[in-house]
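go over this record:
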Amino acid sequence: MTREKNIAFIALFAALIAALGLIPAINMPWGVPVTAQSLGVMLAGAVLGAKRGFLSVLLFVGLVALGLPLLAGGRGGLGVFASPTAGFVIGFPIAAFFTGLVMEKLSDMDVRLSAGIGAFAGGVVALYICGIFGFWAIMNFSMGNERSIADATFVMSVYIPGDLIKVIATALVTHAIYRARPHYVLTRA
């Protein structure tokens, strides 16, 4: 793939993640909203692969850090990295990387199954590890609470059903792209 196509795909998926932020978020009382943006993160990894998916989501996070209001609810700027969502935002590129890595390692498996496993490994497991530790750190250090990791994990468990729907959507969308344009699923190219 040419350098120009790589850049175009990376920018396209950063834009997709930003567009998914336009879908209204469900605000939770503890400050971490339920959004569609993690679906874009999973898709970036599943379609682009580990390296390109990571770069795509890193571009998105960089734009957020610069102050663009790209996160759900129109949030952006450095303040995001001192909020309860900081671990998730920081974990987005890591989640895309692991999603893509698993897809690449399971290249002999059916696309739906490997995309689903990859999206779960990256978009749920890796992202939740980052998100839980970020939530715990912010709640303990900036808000003076003495929450345990177990408490933070329990609070975040509310998100799992929605994220499992995103895993299934990632598997189905990746498969549809693969059937229509196999060379666009770079984890299989």
